[in-house]
Protein backbone atom coordinates (compact mmCIF):
# COMPACT_ATOMS: atom_id res chain seq x y z
CA UNK A 1 0.00 0.00 0.00
CA UNK A 2 1.46 3.36 -1.04
CA UNK A 3 1.74 6.45 1.14
CA UNK A 4 -0.88 8.23 -0.94
CA UNK A 5 -3.40 5.41 -0.44
CA UNK A 6 -2.80 5.36 3.34
CA UNK A 7 -3.39 9.12 3.51
CA UNK A 8 -6.71 8.79 1.65
CA UNK A 9 -7.87 5.97 3.96
CA UNK A 10 -6.81 7.97 7.04
CA UNK A 11 -8.65 11.08 5.85
CA UNK A 12 -11.77 9.02 5.11
CA UNK A 13 -11.74 7.58 8.63
CA UNK A 14 -11.22 11.01 10.18
CA UNK A 15 -14.06 12.47 8.15
CA UNK A 16 -16.38 9.77 9.49
CA UNK A 17 -15.41 10.64 13.07
CA UNK A 18 -16.27 14.33 12.60
CA UNK A 19 -19.51 14.06 10.68
CA UNK A 20 -21.89 17.01 10.67
CA UNK A 21 -25.19 16.42 12.48
CA UNK A 22 -28.28 16.23 10.32
CA UNK A 23 -30.33 19.37 9.78
CA UNK A 24 -33.58 19.62 11.67
CA UNK A 25 -36.52 18.17 9.79
CA UNK A 26 -37.91 21.65 9.05
CA UNK A 27 -34.75 22.55 7.13
CA UNK A 28 -35.17 19.61 4.80
CA UNK A 29 -38.55 20.99 3.72
CA UNK A 30 -37.12 24.29 2.53
CA UNK A 31 -37.27 25.07 -1.20
CA UNK A 32 -34.19 24.32 -3.28
CA UNK A 33 -34.36 27.68 -5.04
CA UNK A 34 -35.61 31.16 -4.26
CA UNK A 35 -37.39 33.37 -6.77
CA UNK A 36 -36.12 36.92 -6.59
CA UNK A 37 -37.67 39.74 -8.59
CA UNK A 38 -35.30 42.15 -10.27
CA UNK A 39 -35.77 45.39 -12.13
CA UNK A 40 -35.70 45.02 -15.89
CA UNK A 41 -33.27 47.13 -17.90
CA UNK A 42 -36.21 49.01 -19.44
CA UNK A 43 -37.56 49.89 -15.98
CA UNK A 44 -34.15 51.08 -14.78
CA UNK A 45 -33.81 53.20 -17.93
CA UNK A 46 -37.25 54.75 -17.35
CA UNK A 47 -36.19 55.67 -13.82
CA UNK A 48 -32.97 57.25 -15.03
CA UNK A 49 -34.58 59.18 -17.86
CA UNK A 50 -37.37 60.53 -15.63
CA UNK A 51 -34.79 61.71 -13.06
CA UNK A 52 -32.79 63.52 -15.75
CA UNK A 53 -35.96 65.07 -17.20
CA UNK A 54 -36.97 66.42 -13.76
CA UNK A 55 -33.55 67.95 -13.16
CA UNK A 56 -33.49 69.49 -16.63
CA UNK A 57 -36.78 71.24 -15.79
CA UNK A 58 -34.94 72.65 -12.76
CA UNK A 59 -32.13 73.83 -15.06
CA UNK A 60 -29.65 71.29 -13.69
CA UNK A 61 -27.57 68.63 -15.43
CA UNK A 62 -26.99 65.55 -13.30
CA UNK A 63 -25.86 61.95 -13.26
CA UNK A 64 -28.30 59.29 -12.15
CA UNK A 65 -27.33 55.75 -11.19
CA UNK A 66 -29.79 52.92 -10.62
CA UNK A 67 -28.34 49.97 -8.72
CA UNK A 68 -29.92 46.54 -8.48
CA UNK A 69 -30.71 44.72 -5.24
CA UNK A 70 -27.09 43.55 -5.06
CA UNK A 71 -25.80 47.13 -5.26
CA UNK A 72 -24.40 46.77 -8.76
CA UNK A 73 -25.00 49.59 -11.25
CA UNK A 74 -27.72 48.67 -13.72
CA UNK A 75 -28.05 52.06 -15.41
CA UNK A 76 -25.80 55.11 -15.28
CA UNK A 77 -26.93 58.18 -17.22
CA UNK A 78 -24.78 61.31 -17.21
CA UNK A 79 -26.30 64.40 -18.78
CA UNK A 80 -24.12 66.30 -21.23
CA UNK A 81 -22.76 68.93 -18.85
CA UNK A 82 -22.86 66.98 -15.58
CA UNK A 83 -19.50 66.98 -13.81
CA UNK A 84 -17.39 63.82 -14.06
CA UNK A 85 -17.28 63.51 -10.27
CA UNK A 86 -21.08 63.14 -10.21
CA UNK A 87 -20.75 59.61 -11.63
CA UNK A 88 -19.12 57.93 -8.59
CA UNK A 89 -21.11 60.12 -6.19
CA UNK A 90 -24.45 59.09 -7.71
CA UNK A 91 -23.43 55.43 -7.52
CA UNK A 92 -22.48 55.69 -3.84
CA UNK A 93 -25.75 57.47 -3.00
CA UNK A 94 -27.76 54.76 -4.79
CA UNK A 95 -25.79 51.99 -3.07
CA UNK A 96 -26.16 53.56 0.39
CA UNK A 97 -29.92 54.06 -0.03
CA UNK A 98 -30.29 50.44 -1.18
CA UNK A 99 -28.17 49.00 1.64
CA UNK A 100 -29.99 50.89 4.40
CA UNK A 101 -33.39 50.84 2.62
CA UNK A 102 -33.68 54.52 3.46
CA UNK A 103 -33.33 57.88 1.73
CA UNK A 104 -29.81 59.15 2.27
CA UNK A 105 -31.13 62.56 3.33
CA UNK A 106 -32.59 61.11 6.54
CA UNK A 107 -29.28 59.48 7.39
CA UNK A 108 -27.20 62.67 7.35
CA UNK A 109 -27.80 63.32 11.06
CA UNK A 110 -27.92 59.64 12.01
CA UNK A 111 -24.25 58.89 11.62
CA UNK A 112 -21.86 61.16 13.50
CA UNK A 113 -18.33 60.63 14.70
CA UNK A 114 -15.03 59.56 13.24
CA UNK A 115 -15.71 55.83 13.28
CA UNK A 116 -19.27 55.67 11.96
CA UNK A 117 -20.47 53.18 9.37
CA UNK A 118 -20.54 55.77 6.55
CA UNK A 119 -16.76 55.96 6.67
CA UNK A 120 -16.68 52.87 4.45
CA UNK A 121 -15.58 53.76 0.92
CA UNK A 122 -18.72 52.35 -0.71
CA UNK A 123 -21.12 54.49 1.32
CA UNK A 124 -22.07 58.14 1.00
CA UNK A 125 -24.54 59.69 3.39
CA UNK A 126 -25.61 62.79 1.50
CA UNK A 127 -29.05 63.72 0.18
CA UNK A 128 -29.84 62.41 -3.28
CA UNK A 129 -30.20 58.66 -2.81
CA UNK A 130 -33.48 56.77 -2.38
CA UNK A 131 -34.27 53.07 -2.17
CA UNK A 132 -36.50 51.27 -4.64
CA UNK A 133 -38.87 49.36 -2.39
CA UNK A 134 -41.78 47.41 -3.88
CA UNK A 135 -44.35 45.76 -1.64
CA UNK A 136 -41.87 45.55 1.21
CA UNK A 137 -39.00 44.15 -0.87
CA UNK A 138 -35.88 46.13 -1.65
CA UNK A 139 -35.32 46.15 -5.41
CA UNK A 140 -32.41 48.57 -5.64
CA UNK A 141 -31.55 52.22 -5.24
CA UNK A 142 -31.44 55.47 -7.16
CA UNK A 143 -28.68 58.01 -6.70
CA UNK A 144 -28.53 61.48 -8.22
CA UNK A 145 -25.60 63.89 -8.13
CA UNK A 146 -24.82 67.19 -9.78
CA UNK A 147 -27.47 69.63 -8.57
CA UNK A 148 -26.46 72.57 -6.38
CA UNK A 149 -28.24 70.95 -3.43
CA UNK A 150 -28.80 67.41 -2.26
CA UNK A 151 -32.49 68.11 -1.87
CA UNK A 152 -32.74 68.87 -5.61
CA UNK A 153 -30.82 65.65 -6.27
CA UNK A 154 -33.34 63.80 -4.10
CA UNK A 155 -36.34 65.42 -5.82
CA UNK A 156 -35.01 64.20 -9.16
CA UNK A 157 -34.44 60.68 -7.78
CA UNK A 158 -38.01 60.68 -6.46
CA UNK A 159 -39.30 61.74 -9.88
CA UNK A 160 -37.45 58.78 -11.38
CA UNK A 161 -39.10 56.38 -8.97
CA UNK A 162 -42.52 57.99 -9.40
CA UNK A 163 -42.31 57.28 -13.15
CA UNK A 164 -42.44 53.52 -12.48
CA UNK A 165 -43.82 53.14 -8.94
CA UNK A 166 -47.44 52.41 -9.93
CA UNK A 167 -46.37 49.86 -12.55
CA UNK A 168 -44.09 48.12 -10.04
CA UNK A 169 -46.79 48.00 -7.37
CA UNK A 170 -49.36 46.59 -9.81
CA UNK A 171 -47.10 43.78 -11.04
Automatic annotation (TrEMBL):
<keyword id="KW-0732">Signal</keyword>
<dbReference type="InterPro" id="IPR052517">
    <property type="entry name" value="GlcG_carb_metab_protein"/>
</dbReference>
<protein>
    <recommendedName>
        <fullName>Adenosylcobalamin biosynthesis, GlcG-related protein</fullName>
    </recommendedName>
</protein>
<dbReference type="Pfam" id="PF03928">
    <property type="entry name" value="HbpS-like"/>
</dbReference>
<feature type="signal peptide">
    <location>
        <begin position="1"/>
        <end position="22"/>
    </location>
</feature>
<dbReference type="InterPro" id="IPR005624">
    <property type="entry name" value="PduO/GlcC-like"/>
</dbReference>
<dbReference type="InterPro" id="IPR038084">
    <property type="entry name" value="PduO/GlcC-like_sf"/>
</dbReference>
Amino acid sequence: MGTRHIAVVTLSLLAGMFSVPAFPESASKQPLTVNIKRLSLDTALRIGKAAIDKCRKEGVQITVTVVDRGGDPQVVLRDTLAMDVSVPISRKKAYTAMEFNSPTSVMEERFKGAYGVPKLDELLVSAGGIPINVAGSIMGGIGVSGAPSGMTDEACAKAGLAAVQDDLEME
